[in-house]
């Protein structure tokens, strides 16, 4: 089914045109490590976390200690993605986009538009040149020149409602966007011809990742699916949980995908798309995101702070397995 409403507002905006308006910098907080964080990323040997009140943290010693980095905004930050060892991007509420060009030591405002009353949900750079920002009201921003210009496309299942977009993933030439209310969109030709994929259930999807030629899509009430990137056929994975699933990350060896969610749930899926282990953490925290660096897994949650676990700890079939 062709997408009825793709309002390609070819708004090619230069980096300087993404005007900086007055913003309040985040306060330096003694208990910043206890804040609620919504996303994490790794750049070289540094781990970064972003979250409430504009807080940005980094660790250079595998999470033993954390340093608060000066942030030019005090709004909630929802996503972080590095496109190279020097360049990274952060997005958040109030239509905020921040950029670093020194590996995350300093961040500057590239866009801040509180008057728009919108916010961005996530950011994903797949190369130094190509990246995406996803937001409320169906906003998908695409850059193919390292953030110098951006193109805005609005995605919608129905003409009267623009779905809030949560995540995007690519397999070869196929791009997939997941959103609230079961909205799933794909493109196979340079983002110019988006189509709707019929959803296997009516609820929202909060994330998407990839295993070989399959997308892994997850959302409410333990709903977890494989979507073949070529045939667009669905295959349900029995997650053995009814918890909301909110974040995912692939291990460095690409052999396992970890999916996390509410109630401290951590699912381990192998490269064949099979659920091989389920762990319920002792904290029972509602996990919001995770990132993996080597043997270490870093997790953020609504309880605040950042937990660290090991890959071997989570993949042991006798540890909390179900």
UniProtKB/TrEMBL annotation:
The lineage of its organism: Bacteria, Pseudomonadati, Pseudomonadota, Gammaproteobacteria, Thiotrichales. This is Glycosyl hydrolase. One of its GO terms (molecular function) is hydrolase activity. The keyword Hydrolase applies. One of its GO terms (biological process) is photosynthesis. Residues 65-294 form the Photosynthesis system II assembly factor Ycf48/Hcf136-like domain. It comes from the Bacteria. Keywords: Hydrolase, Photosynthesis, Photosystem II, Signal. Residues 1-19 form the signal peptide. It comes from Cycloclasticus zancles 78-ME. Pfam families: PSII_BNR. One of its GO terms (cellular component) is photosystem II.
């Amino acid at each position: 089914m062709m997408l009825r409403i793709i309002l390609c507002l070819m708004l090619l905006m230069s980096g300087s045109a993404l005007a900086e308006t007055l913003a309040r910098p985040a306060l330096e907080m003694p208990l910043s490590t206890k804040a609620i964080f919504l996303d994490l990323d790794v750049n070289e040997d540094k781990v970064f976390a972003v979250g409430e009140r504009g807080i940005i943290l980094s660790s250079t010693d595998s999470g033993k200690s954390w340093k608060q980095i000066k942030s030019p905004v005090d709004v909630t930050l929802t996503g972080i993605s590095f496109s190279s060892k020097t360049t990274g991007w952060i997005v958040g509420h109030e239509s905020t986009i921040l950029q670093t060009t020194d590996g995350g030591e300093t961040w500057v405002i590239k866009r801040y538009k509180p008057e728009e009353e919108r916010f961005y949900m996530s950011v994903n750079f797949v190369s130094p040149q190509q990246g995406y920002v996803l937001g409320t009201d169906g906003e998908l921003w695409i850059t193919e020149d390292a953030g110098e210009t951006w193109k805005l496309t609005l995605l919608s299942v129905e003409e009267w409602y623009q779905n809030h977009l949560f995540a995007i993933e690519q397999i070869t030439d196929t791009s997939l966007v997941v959103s609230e209310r079961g909205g799933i969109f794909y493109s196979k030709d340079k983002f110019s011809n988006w189509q709707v994929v019929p959803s296997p259930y009516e609820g929202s999807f909060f994330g998407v990742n990839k295993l070989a030629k399959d997308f892994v899509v997850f959302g409410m009430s333990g709903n977890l699916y494989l979507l073949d990137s070529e045939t667009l056929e669905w295959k349900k994975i029995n997650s053995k949980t009814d918890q909301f699933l909110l974040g995912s990350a692939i291990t460095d060896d690409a052999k396992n995908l970890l999916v996390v969610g509410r109630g401290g749930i951590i699912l381990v899926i192998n490269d064949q798309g099979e659920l091989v282990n389920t762990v319920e953490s002792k904290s029972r925290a509602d996990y919001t995101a995770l990132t993996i660096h080597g043997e270490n897994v870093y997790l953020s949650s609504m309880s605040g702070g950042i937990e660290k676990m090991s890959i071997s700890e989570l993949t042991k079939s006798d540890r909390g397995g179900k």
